[in-house]
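User
Here is a favour to ask of a fellow structure person. I am asking you to supply a protein in sequence and structure-token form. Please set it down just below, with no commentary around it:

Assistant
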Amino acid sequence: MSESGTPAADADADDSFWRSLRFFTLYRLSIAALFLVAALVFGDTISLGTQDARLFGRVAAVYLLLAVAFLVILLRRPRRFNLQLSVQVAVDVVALTLMMFASGGQKSGIAVLLLVVVAGAALVGQGRMTLFYAALASVAMLLEESWRVLALDVDLADFVRTGIICIAFFATAIIARLLARRVVANETLARERGRELDDQLRISERIIRDMEDGVLVVDGDGRVRLLNPRAEALFGVETAAGDALETMSRALADRYRMWNAQSVETVEMLRQKDGRLLRVRYVPSTELRGRALIYVEDMERVQSQAQQLKLAALGRLTANMAHEIRNPLAAISHAAELLAEEDRDALHTRLARIIHDNTGRLNRLVTEVLELGRRDRAQPERLRWQAFLSGFLEELALHDASVTRRVQVGDVDVELRFDRGHLYRVLWNLIGNALRHASNADQAVRLEARPAAASGRVELHVIDDGPGVGEAQRNQVFEPFFTTHGAGTGLGLYIARELCEASGASLELLDDAPGAHFRISAEGQVCQ
């Protein structure tokens, strides 16, 4: 009894409890209607109500009315499960006991219905208050038999039969309680397994929906039963479950029919009309009742990933090799300088200068490769453009005295977020290229800072009056090892763009000839 009666227990009653109680109420309604019909139609011709037919009829009528009331309450206010069940069982016990008394006692067979009530209440309540219901039925039986002995002077031996029936009540209650526990355990396990299965299905659907490969489930008739969005994207069509495979790709449908004749796992390449190469894998599945799985993979993506892996590995190898080459280059350059100082022969001097120039070029190439490897070490900070540019141009003028007259700086000052070392490297490359290709006129190279169209960003412009970049070369200027300068390495602009991206900026070549016009867009704001 301690298992029930609490508000928490009532609140935990789920749909299965109420569904069982509705069936139990319908059973009560049927029994009550049967008793009333038997009393009104057959009368004394049956053994029901033989001792007091009037009492039997009245109790049957009241019992039927209460059964109807219980059903209405249950349908309209499914609350307080244990209270409703206990009241209904109590009414069953009282009504059946009174009808049993009016029919001559437990010899009438109505006591069997009390046994059904005890068992049914134990199963409906799933083991709750089972012994209480058995005790209630036993007390009712004993009171009925005691009243019969006192009022009608019947045989005391009937107490033995009544006692046996009471024992049957408790035995039934205990068995029903054990069975109900198992039912509850199985139902709880089934509910948990159902929730786990629902979670797994949702996870599987999400995984399949977000897969980079297309997945199709096709039946033996060549109709698509399931597919993910990636499959539609790969074939460039929109289709739905149940459509024929031909709606996605006629070539795939023809291949599928040929494969279905042998039904063994097969992998093949399929070329689409648009030129896209697809890798198709057919997998028979016994779990899908004659259906097959088709995996579609975009080979361009696979090749791109493989190329990226190769480039990443090549980059690491190149950086390591550049680091190892740097020391021998320094030794060769130093040795060439010593030879030039000690040997006054013109031929040897010219050869030493050639060695020195080429080792310097190789050293610049190694430096730029190593600089590319450091792009991920960006530490952006807030920089004032005019202050940074002033120090930068002073240092640049030490290498090229024409900087002071050939470079014009705009009046607008901005504050931008950029790695100081990376910005220095980017400007060194851009302004160096501009000075090399611009004319020798004053203010041939212009440096301007402007607010960007996007909020919270600024632009830095490097413009020269040179011949500009040819139309055929515009798509190649940012490619590694592309150069038009005899002594160049072809990594300058490529590294400059990579360093800009490392600080969240971008570097572009604008199409506004005649001169070259590069624009850096970075996070920042215009200074007031």
About this structure: The mean pLDDT is 79. The chain is about 60% helix and 15% strand.
